[in-house]
Prior knowledge:
Blueprint: H1 9-22, H2 27-31, E1 33-42, E2 75-83, E3 86-87, E4 91-93, H3 99-118, E5 123-125, H4 135-143, E6 147-148
Parallel strand pairs: 1-5, 5-6
Antiparallel strand pairs: 1-2, 2-3, 2-4
Domain Tc1-like transposase DDE: 33-164
Protein name: Transposable element Tcb2 transposase
Pfam family, one: DDE_3
Amino acid sequence: PVRCIPLTATHCRLRLAWSREHALWTPHQWSCVTFSDESRFSLQSDSRRTFIWRAPGTRYHQENTIERHRYGGAGWLVWGGIILGSRTDLHVQSVTMTGHIYRDVILEQHVHLFRGAMGAEFLFMDDNARPHRANIVDECLQSEDIARMDWPAYSPDLNPIEHV
């Protein structure tokens, strides 16, 4: 079966409103938007259904067990952004994204450069992940005069970088 995010009636209404608001945007307007996203890559198997053939009485033998760490084990988080005709460098980190890291690394080292190159028309898209909405992030965006695109919750399918 396909896994999907369950959407409430409110989610659907907000997604439709966002789509209608942006349906008539010109190519120039879209060319000023930097779309960003991050993905986490686990070094552990994420399969919760692994089938094996084993002899009776060998259930707990080492070759028939898979260690599962409570928090998914080690992994890497990769962040990137795209804008028409260009892209950011990829940022790779082995620690959890926090509001401080997002501000100090992502905004200051990546987004700030694109804002400087694009000028006042620049628009930054990030999703509603908790680190992206931290007060220190909002303060940084405001102090750097970086406009943020409103983004409907649970809408990764609307983000073009989601498929890159």
